[in-house]
Design goal:
Strand content: 25-35%
Largest sheet: 4 strands, antiparallel
CATH topology of the largest domain: PH-domain like
Number of domains: 2
Mean pLDDT: 87
Structural class: alpha+beta
Helix content: 40-55%
Order of helices and strands: EHHHHEEEEEEH
Number of strands: 7
Radius of gyration: 20 Å
Oligomer: single chain
Number of helices: 5
Strand order of the largest sheet: 1-2-3-4
């Protein structure tokens, strides 16, 4: 385990080619891994199996097709979400900086900056190329290159970090 960083800590990162596509995939995958969505899909598939076994087969087929619409739509919208992310800050070569202070971190890119308290972050997880943050009370994800949240800084997020 990496020792926690001592604030203040300044980190700079550059958006790599392909990162917007990976971020779009992570965002779409998160939508389907939520407990409510997963439970609804599981129940629908169980009911479909029941209809395959004891009821009219066409009802089971219809339920499977309806259950496939959501994941298929998410897959088909990946290019549009990737283009949106690229246009709003995930363009390859975009430089960003993160300053980790004692109670908050400040993300800066170009002429804009945004400060967030560590206590606002409900969950922080990392993938090979991304750091994925969820703010308390919000359904949207906040995605950064993993280099922008080095191992020492992750400890500043306290219980929100699930390494």
């Amino acid at each position: 385990m990496t020792a926690p960083a001592e604030p203040p800590l300044h980190v700079e990162a550059v958006i790599a080619p392909g990162l917007a596509k990976r971020a779009a995939f992570v965002v779409q995958r998160d939508r389907f891994l939520r407990p409510v969505t997963g439970t609804l899909l599981a129940v629908e598939l169980i009911v479909a199996v029941v209809f395959f076994v004891i009821g009219p087969i066409w009802v089971g087929v219809l339920l499977v097709l309806v259950g496939a619409v959501g994941p298929l739509a998410a897959y088909l919208t990946l290019p549009k979400l990737t283009a949106h992310l690229t246009a709003t800050g995930f363009a390859p070569g975009t430089e960003l900086a993160v300053d980790y202070l004692p109670d908050q971190f400040v993300l800066s890119t170009g002429g804009a900056s945004n400060a967030m308290a560590y206590s606002e972050i409900q969950k922080l997880r990392t993938t090979r190329s991304l750091a994925v943050l969820r703010r308390r009370g919000e359904k949207v994800l906040f995605v950064l290159p993993v280099e922008a949240v080095p191992p020492g800084a992750r400890q500043l997020f306290g219980s929100a970090y699930r390494g």
